[in-house]
Design brief:
By secondary structure, the chain is of the alpha/beta class. It has helices at 13-25, 28-35, 39-53, 69-96, 109-114, 116-126, 139-147, 209-220, 234-242, 252-261, 291-301; strands at residues 58-61, 64-67, 100-108, 129-137, 153-157, 165-179, 190-191, 201-204, 229-231, 247-251, 265-269, 277-285.
Length: 302
Amino acid sequence: MFAPQNRGSNPTPAALEVFLAVVTENGAGKAALALGMSQPAVSQHLRTLEEQLGQPLFERRGRTLVLTRYGQALLPEARRVLQSLENFSATARALGRSERGHVEYGASTTMAVYVLPKFLAKFHQGHPKVRMSCYSGKSERLIERLFRGEIEFAVVEGIEHVDGYRRHLFYEDELVVIVPPKHPWAKREEIPPSWLVKEPLIVREPGAVTWRVLERAFEHAGLELNPAIYTDNHEVTKRLVLEGAGVGIVSSVVVRPNLKVGNLKALRVKLKDGELRRIFWLVHPEQVGNPAAEALIKLLSS
């Protein structure tokens, strides 16, 4: 009878591999050849394994090793353990090549809805086993989440360089005025900002980066920005304009689908110092540490 030895220690993968090889090859000698080991080494692994378990795995019948009932019961468990180790190693290798993993990132609503999807579709084609979680919303909140380490990168606007982080120019957008096709301005390409003072104006709420861009532009033009309706996203603005509630100001990328359909018209605001521009940045820590996230950042930065 075996007495359990080395209490608290677990069988090594090498010992389990020897155990399976002896069963598969029908003997220690053939198992040694298959594993590229000496027969004494095979025997030692089996002896150590049986001492750890406190039970014999084989019994000898003439020159043949036959599994005991105990060995028969443990055989499928040994196979599962070694398969799990192989799966673990394969997953680790895949993660190192950015083939698997989980990427959590943030993007301002405009970028999340209208720009990033085509990049993410392309990334998914090349990395089908990588899971992605997108958190959209205001740039300020996403920047806070990035600094707290809750997301791995963010596509936002209105951020300066911060030590420990890298910033890449991702997208430049223009703010445009949108009107229905039958509006008196619909056939124009641009209007002076003073015209906007005379119309019910629909814009993003104060505090949003879009609002700040507009506020600065109106101040430079010597005008007061006095909207009739505030909204928390561009889709609401578009819907209100379509219903005739007023004229809106949105990102040009937001209105592209409507321009194709023809249910809205877009006009530039004629400013002395250029256009109403919005700049979106891709921001991430200098050391990302997630191969899948690094691969996605590389795609977005190219």
